[in-house]
Write a structure and sequence with these properties.
alpha/beta, 7-stranded mixed β-sheet, about 15% strand
Length: about 240
């Protein structure tokens, strides 16, 4: 029986973490694939860890594991910690907010299994029904995607997407160094340098505002572009 590992990096997400977990648990995966949920709490300063602990106690039948970072290290460090401990056959990255729809796991799984892929991205831009909260984020995502395509001969529409789906052993074989939001460009660069053309499928997207807790900043876009350039020329 196959298992999908869902890595959820979380930092100060007390308003959304429980509804998100409920959505993840409610998804019935195709082919009787099971779920392993690994939450990496990046030293949250709100009620996030206690809410998760209470939820785990209330749902003992769910395969949920909580890892608490001793200090805040960033999203990339949290994802790397999750990659270290997952045991599933496949893995997807899931933000702790409600911007992405866990029902799309099956959309990704269907294409992933049908085409026997190592990696697959869920694209927000391939779905014309999706909206974007800020013009600056929209343009920033497009710019990062342009440089990813230019530097690594890809044909992506949404490089910074959260929904990056991998064969677990393949992801574990990639030596990641990221600590913050640069996980996305680093993993894209290192996958591309293995000669893989990254494929995409359309997914749903429900953007939240800065007031609602969106954390990424314009400087993270600059760092993403720098990371792409860096890993184009170094390992």
């Amino acid at each position: 029986m196959k298992t999908l590992s869902i890595i959820i990096p979380a930092y100060n997400e007390e308003k959304t973490i429980i509804p998100l977990l409920q959505k993840v648990i409610n998804v019935k995966l195709i082919n009787d694939i099971q779920k392993e949920i690994v939450i990496v709490n990046d030293c949250s300063q709100d009620m996030t860890p206690s809410l998760i602990n209470d939820y785990i106690l209330s749902r003992p039948e769910a395969n949920i594991r909580l890892i608490n970072q001793e200090k805040n290290q960033g999203k990339g460090a949290a994802i790397r910690k999750g990659i270290e401990i997952i045991t599933g056959d496949y893995v997807i990255i899931q933000d702790a907010d409600l911007e992405y729809e866990p029902e799309d796991y099956n959309v990704l799984l269907e294409t992933f299994l049908k085409k026997n892929l190592n990696v697959l991205y869920g694209s927000r831009f391939l779905n014309p029904q999706n909206k974007h909260s800020y013009q600056s984020f929209y343009l920033g995502g497009r710019l990062v995607t342009y440089f990813a395509n230019f530097l690594f001969a890809q044909h992506l529409t949404d490089e910074p997407t959260c929904y990056k789906f991998f064969e677990a052993e393949f992801l574990k074989s990639i030596p990641l160094k990221c600590s913050g939001f640069e996980f996305c460009p680093e993993v894209t660069a290192k996958v591309a340098k293995r000669g893989i053309k990254i494929q995409e499928v359309a997914i749903k997207y429900y953007p939240r505002s800065i007031e609602e807790g969106k954390k990424i900043k314009w400087t993270d876009g600059i760092e993403a572009i720098w990371t792409l350039f860096k890993y184009r020329f170094v390992n």
